[in-house]
Each structure stands twice: as C-alpha cells, then as structure tokens.
Specification:
- By secondary structure, the protein is mainly α.
Length: 158
C-alpha cells in the first residue's frame, strides 16, 4: 500500500511539474511574441523596464528597502527609476537627502502602474487556472522487478 501511494504521488508530481513547466514556456513565448508583433521587440521590454522597481520603491518608501525586497542593488533600482523618469520625461519622486516622496505626476503614474501590474497578475492566474491536470505521456525508468511488483498492479487496477 505504501509503495503504491508513493509511486502514484511521485508520478503525479513529476507529471505536474514537467507539464506545468512546458505550458509556462509555451504560454510565455506566445504572449511575448504577440506583444512583440504589436509593439516591436525592443519596445516591449523598454515599456515595462523600471515599472516594477518604481512601484516597489513607492511602496517601500526608499530605494534601499525596495532594492532589498527585489534582491537588487540600491544603485540598480535608482538607475532603473532614473531611466524610467528620463523615458517618461517627468520626475516621479521628490528626493531629499533624508526622504523621498512621490510627486503629483508620480502618484498618478503609480496608481496606474499598480492597476496594470494587478491586471498582468490576474491574466497569469487566469491562464494557469484549469491547467493543473497533467496531459501527455510520462516515461519512468525503474528496474524491471520494481515495475512488476509495484507499478504493474497499480496500472492494471486503472
């Protein structure tokens, strides 16, 4: 009984992991290619660069804390936000030596970015829902004796 349950669990886990990984790669490539066809290859990454760092810095209240949360250097977060500000042509943060706060334009942009990131997350969840059942073939390599005594009875019972 323990061997049957264990093998069923291992097979199910392996199948789920492999198929989830495969479907994630296929979906990601499909979404990326659709975005690239609409905006062009470089424009997609350019438009999204810096937004997550900006939102994290606004939420955290400091570049240092945002960098720590994102596992980046403080300099990388600062440069990312500086490039975003340059691309937008507007100042997003009012910085002093002791504090930082969002400007009026920064607050408006922050609210829209939070909604956009929430929509991206919701889209990812919508794609993932209903895709938890494994499909396709799974090959398992085990010794013949194990297959005869453990796997064959389970497979025959199906």
């Amino acid at each position: 009984m323990v061997a049957e349950g264990a093998i069923n669990g291992v097979v199910a886990l392996a199948a789920t992991c492999l198929l989830s990984y495969r479907s994630l790669i296929v979906r990601s490539a499909g979404i990326y290619s659709q975005l690239c066809s609409v905006y062009g290859t470089n424009k997609v990454s350019d438009r999204l660069n810096g937004i997550s760092a900006f939102v994290e810095a606004a939420d955290a209240g400091s570049f240092a804390l945002a960098a720590e949360r994102m596992r980046l250097t403080r300099s990388a977060v600062g440069k990312s936000i500086a490039r975003l500000e340059q691309r937008l042509g507007v100042r997003l943060f009012q910085r002093t030596t002791r504090s930082q706060s969002l400007t009026e334009d920064g607050q408006a942009y922050y609210e829209r970015c939070v909604r956009a990131l929430a929509e991206l997350d919701a889209g990812t969840l919508a794609l993932d829902s209903g895709k938890n059942e494994p499909i396709g073939s799974l090959r398992v390599s085990v010794p013949v004796l194990f297959g005869r005594h453990c796997a064959a009875p389970v497979l025959l019972a199906l």
